[in-house]
Design goal:
single chain, 218 residues, alpha+beta, Glutaredoxin, Glutathione S-transferase Yfyf (Class Pi), Chain A, domain 2, 2 domains, 8 helices, 9% strand, Glutathione_S-Trfase_N
Length: 218
């Protein structure tokens, strides 16, 4: 089964698509990524997309004849199913800690940093396509709260959970990379110097060279 092609369905600018990419890069898993399947473009939220994911989300992992949704589940599957360094820990406690932070990041941190804050700048829904400043201001306290949570969890470690890169870092990296590069967020991230150093370390990883990239027009 490991010889079957791995395709990550979704746009490469998606934070969660990038998390799965980082997992593949760290494991040395060959993969393709994008919104085409077998050379054919799949319309976002169209019937074929809905058939792949019942809630019309990304990413979707296609591995041979298998289909899998939800980023933490996809990453765990890839880590368990392919050889290479473990990205989940060496025992039940370490794996539980990584799993816990994957859930926190995918649910609460993503909602605060990406869904409620950054996407208001990327896909503004105000009159005439304007940014809704009231939504931005309302989202900022939760952004600060989540940054404080992650700053405390990181402490003096180089990585978020263990002493090496794990799946939790794969989920954290893309969203923090976007936030710390976002000029309007400069005042928000100023209070998180450990996270600033952390995301800079993650950007230097070989895996990040092909994943944490700027995409024109994204």
């Amino acid at each position: 089964m490991n010889n079957e092609p791995v395709h990550i369905f979704g746009p490469q600018f998606s934070t969660f698509v990038r998390s799965v990419q980082l997992c593949c890069e760290e494991k040395g898993i060959p993969y393709t990524v994008g919104t085409r399947i077998d050379g054919e473009r799949v319309e976002f939220h169209g019937p074929e997309h809905q058939a792949l994911h019942p809630f019309g989300k990304v990413p979707v992992l296609l591995h041979g004849g298998r289909r899998l949704i939800e980023t933490p589940t996809i990453c765990r599957y890839l880590d368990d199913n392919f050889p290479g360094v473990s990205l989940q820990g060496d025992d039940a406690w370490q794996r539980a800690q990584v799993d816990q932070w994957m859930a926190v990041l995918a649910l609460y941190v993503d909602d605060a940093l990406i869904r409620r804050y950054l996407l208001e700048f990327v896909f503004p829904k105000g009159e005439g396509g304007s940014i809704r400043q009231d939504k931005v201001e309302a989202a900022q306290p939760q952004v600060e709260k989540m940054l404080g949570l992650l700053e405390a969890q990181l402490g003096d470690r180089e990585y978020l959970v263990l002493d090496r890169f794990t799946l939790a870092d794969a989920i954290a990296a893309p969203m923090l990379d976007y936030l710390f590069k976002h000029p309007p967020a400069s005042a928000l991230v100023a209070g998180a110097p450990r996270l600033a150093a952390y995301i800079e370390r993650l950007r230097q990883l070989p895996a990040s060279a092909t994943v944490l990239v700027d995409i024109q027009g994204a």
